[in-house]
Amino acid sequence: MGTINMTLQNDIFKAVSVMKRGGVILYPTDTVWGIGCDATSSDAVRRVYEIKRRSDSKALISLVSDIDMLERFVGNIPSSVADFLKKSDRPTTVVYPSCRLLAPELLADDGSAGIRVTSEIYSRGLCQELGVPVVSTSANISGEPAPALFSEISEEIISAVDYVADFRRDDSTVSAPSRVVKLNSDGSFIILRP
After folding, report:
1. What's the pTM value of the predicted model, to 2 decimals?
2. Which end of the chain is more exposed for a tag (fewer CB within 10 A), N or C?
């Protein structure tokens, strides 16, 4: 994991240990605090839907640590998308037309799924240590405002998860939601959320 400090590394290891056992975590991402789990575990993904009281018809996104991990789950990435991601000035979620190896509950009816390459140290470390994508959905009950800071997360959410990350709990930086683009099967893409 490079040069991250031992306290951060231990926090990541604890979170990953929980996810490997099918647990659900609360953690900081490159946008907002998220509820997450192993994106290949159907049981864990279903728990995230239950915690959020969200209909499973509303697909959740996943985070990956890098382009190599992304390609394992979506296949070859068109150069147009790779270039767009490299030049992006903020986190960008891409809805890919087809994905493999993810829990079926993460796929939309058409087989597509939203995935974002994260550059944030904690969420990237989770993906690297777990070795698979990590679900990322805002830490709120569905329909309620997404909390921008850890201090805004409801006790109901905190008590429902199996592990709460220590990292960035006191952070007062408010991040914008990710940009969302949809990749078409012909390699072109459209912006769904600027």
Report:
1. 0.94
2. C
- Euclidean distance between CA atoms 47 and 26, whole angstroms: 13
Name the pairing type of β-strands 25-28 and 163-164.
parallel
List pLDDT tens digits, range 176-191. Answer: 788 999 998 888 889 9
Angle at 172 between CA 60 and CA 167, to 5 degrees: 65
What are the pLDDT digits (tens) for 65-118?
Answer: 999 999 999 998 888 888 888 888 889 999 999 999 999 999 998 899 999 999
CA distance 132 to 102: 9
